[in-house]
Write a structure and sequence with these properties.
The complex is a heterodimer of chains A (113) and B (115). Chain A is mainly β and 113 residues long. Helix content of chain A is 0%, strand content 50%. Chain A has no helices and 11 strands. In chain A, strands 2, 4, 5, 6, 9, 10 and 11 form a 7-stranded mixed sheet that branches. By secondary structure, chain B is mostly beta strands. Chain B is 0% helix and 52% strand. Chain B is built from no helices and 12 strands. In chain B, strands 2, 5, 6, 10, 11 and 12 form a 6-stranded mixed sheet that branches. In chain B, strand 5 and strand 6 form a beta hairpin. Chain B starts with a strand and ends with a strand. Classes of the chains: A mainly beta (113), B mainly beta (115). The interface between A and B is medium-sized, with 27 and 24 residues.
Chain lengths: 113, 115
């Protein structure tokens, strides 16, 4: 099993550009999440999904959008990139049962200049 | 709001020695879960240990164990017989019964292991 796969691994964007970070999981997990990690900081939740067609905002959703058309995929869209969005982005999934641990992808390092 | 605090930005330990990383949390929930994740320089997030709040017994995983003090809202991680491969950023995290396994993370403790 590949687990949680994120693409790309690295990306540089210019201010105002848009892009989509891809995330797919092959564990048939219902719950998926997007976190961002700023340098020297913990992870903060951007958006999450409890199943196909259902998404909700996390702690820091501004400037991002998500969709969940299938169980496997949970892309994160950045519109009008800003320097404040320079960060490492992690996608994760979980079985969703009480206290089930998260399985993380390897992250995407995004720089906006 | 639930918050997680790691008061030690950096810690160091000699190889083969024992080190304890601190974590406190704030919650009004009665049923919740606590985790320690390890992030080595590869950036990968690796689950170290998990504790269920309703269980009195402290969780252990090989050289890793926790000291869970529910009344004090404290959840420290003890690493015994430290190895060079333990060097990483360690994050304490919390999820509650109705959170859908959403995690709230602390800001991390950078652990250095000296040979």
């Amino acid at each position: 099993n590949a687990g949680v796969t994120q693409t790309p691994k690295f990306r540089i964007l210019k201010i105002g550009q848009s892009m989509t970070l891809q995330c797919t999981q092959d564990m048939n997990h219902n719950y998926m999440y997007w976190y961002r990690q700023d340098p020297g900081m913990g992870l903060k939740l951007i958006y999450y999904s409890v199943g196909a067609g259902i998404t909700d905002k996390g702690e820091v959703p501004n400037g991002y959008n998500v969709s969940r058309s299938t169980t496997e995929d949970f892309p994160l869209r950045l519109e009008l990139a800003a320097p404040s969005q320079t960060s490492v982005y992690f996608c994760a999934s979980s079985y969703g049962a009480r206290g089930s641990p998260l399985h993380f992808g390897n992250g995407t390092r995004l720089t906006v200049t | 709001a639930q918050t997680v605090t790691q008061s030690q930005p950096e810690m160091s330990v000699q190889e083969a020695e024992t080190v304890t990383l601190s974590c406190t949390y704030d919650t009004s929930e009665s049923d919740y879960y606590l985790f320690w994740y390890k992030q080595p320089p590869s950036r990968q997030m690796i689950l170290v240990i998990r504790q269920e709040a309703y269980k009195q017994q402290n969780a252990t995983e090989n050289r890793f164990s926790v000291n869970f003090q529910k009344a004090a809202k404290s959840f420290s991680l003890k690493i015994s017989d430290s190895q060079l491969g333990d060097a990483a950023m360690y994050f304490c995290a919390y999820s509650w019964e109705t959170s859908g396994s959403r995690l709230t993370f602390g800001e991390g403790t950078q652990l250095t292991v000296n040979p």
